[in-house]
Amino acid sequence: QLQLVESGGGLVQPGGSLRLSCAASGSIFSITTMGWYRQAPGNKRDLVAVAASGGGTNYADSVKGRFTISRDNAKKTVYLQMNSLTPEDTAVYYCNVDVFETHLSSSVRRYWGQGTQVTVSS
Predict the structure, then answer these.
(1) C-alpha to C-alpha distance for 94 and 84, rounded to whole angstroms
(2) For the segment 57-86, what is each residue's pLDDT rounded down to a tens digit?
(3) Cα separation of 74 and 27, whole Å?
């Protein structure tokens, strides 16, 4: 069982920056991918960025060049550096961690953080 604790959200002016953190704790076999999703009121939860275990990353077109995802495998923590923020970035941001609970491929499980509010407004 894994627990995810998010931090770093808040209110920021357009053009500003925020850094989100998501720390995982608990016993698992291995972590595969770590990523960030976001959801605005009335919308579906959309992928923002994902980081593979080997270091590869992928971003939504809307954040490419502005956001940077990184991970510290030793700390079981994933970060999202958000620069040049706009009001369209306002949403609840959710950390996602996919893990193998055991060595069996059938043990893959997806975990979600509690969500942290990011509001971009002047």
Answers:
(1) 20
(2) 999 999 999 999 999 999 999 999 999 999
(3) 14
